[in-house]
Amino acid sequence: MTTDKKRVAEIKETIIKKLKRDFGRTLENATDEDMFQAVALSLRDMMLERLAGAELEIEEKRLKRLYYLSAEYLVGRALVNNMISLDLLDEYKAVMQDIGYPFDRLENEEFEAGLGNGGLGRLAACFLDSLSTLNLPVVGHGIRYEYGIFRQRIVNGEQVEEPDDWTQKGDVWEVERREEQVEIRFEGDVEENWTENGLNIIHRNYQAVMAVPYDMPIIGYKSHMPATLRLWKAECPAAFDLHSFNKGDYMCMLKQRELAETISKVLYPEDDHIAGQMLRLKQYYFLASAAMQSMVRDHKKRYGDIRTLPDKAVVQINDTHPALAIPELMRLLMDEEHMGWDDAYGIVSRIFNYTNHTVMREALEAWPEQLFKSLLPRIYAIISAISERFNQKLWQAFPGDWDRISHMSVIAYDEVRMANLCLAVCGKVNGVSQLHGNILKTRTFRDFYVVFPEKFTAVTNGITMRRWLAVSNPKLTALIKDCIGDGFLIDHTELQRLKPYTEKKRFLEEYAQIKAENKKRLADYVKRTQGAVINPDSLFDVQAKRLHEYKRQLLKVLHILHLFNRLTQDGSFEMPVPVTFLFAAKASPGYGKAKDIIRLINAVAELVNTHPAAKDKISVVFLENYNVSLAEVLIPAADLSEQISTAGREASGTGNMKFMLNGALTIGTMDGANIEILEQVGKENIFIFGASAQEIANMETGHIYRPKALFDSDKNIRDAVSRLTDGTLSAGDSRRFEGIYNSLLYGDYDSADKYFVLYDFEAYGAAFETALSVYAGQSDWMKKAALNTACAGFFSAERAVEEYNRKIWRLRE
Ligand code: 26Q
Question: Would the pTM of this model clear 0.90, i.e. be above it?
Answer without folding.
Answer: yes
